[in-house]
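Appendix B, Record 12. Input sequence as logged:
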Amino acid sequence: MCSNKVCNFDFNKVCDGYATNFNAYYPLTSNNVNKWEWDFFNNSIVEDSINSNLNYFLPPGLHAVKLTVYDTTIFPDGCPTSIIKNVRVFSNPTANFNASTECINNYTKIEDISIVGDTGLYTNRIWKYKDLSSISQYIPLGFSSILDSIEFDYCGKNRYEIRLTVIDSNQCIDSIDKKVTVACLPTANIEWNTVCNNNITTFKDSSIQGTFPLGPYATYAWTNSNGIWPTLDSISDEVYYQFYNWGSQNNTTLTITDSLGCMSTAVVNAYVYQNPVVNI
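Logged structural output:
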């Protein structure tokens, strides 16, 4: 004859990637129970028939978990008793962010674009960074906002790595690391020839590229404090021609801008020789 048996179990709430602990120890089940059958998807497939306490990895979502208990000393079937409980495994948030590429001395803008899991609430957002040019630990950025900015001390391609960790109200967590480029500035430089009065001084750009290219992507802005330039001459090219008079203050300035918008300026004082005076 079957006697009444208590059939129950406890479980903990977990996030995706962690095992749910199922406990059917006495007194959750009767002390005469000696067999436990766990059907974690309520599909008549028994995943475990030995343990009263076990850990099992379930995918994210809501699952109907069925436990059937037996007293195998009772013939013929052990008098099975069952219970079904809904068990949820929380989806994790998906951490993600955008980071702008800026010139040195400008602020890098960072924005959290993470995707929420089962809850739309973040209880914590942690920003950290480290300098990849040295062996260092991640350093907290000191803010937890969705949108913020940071000024880095040094420049270089993929020099820094930013880590964003998001934790939602279910205590589910995810993190992501991304490399960030802080562009080194180009170095403006001018080559020029020294000429006699009434001759054309030729100025040529010999600037040094920063992190981003110059070449056809650069703009050249020549200005001068004196003199005139020949008709049809371009003042936004790599080569610049200028008439200067002898004895004038002949400052010529070149400002270059690379493809990212990083700028540099060089100034030279071009000397013009006085022509000899012939007396007869």
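Confidence is low (pLDDT under 50) at residues 228-236.
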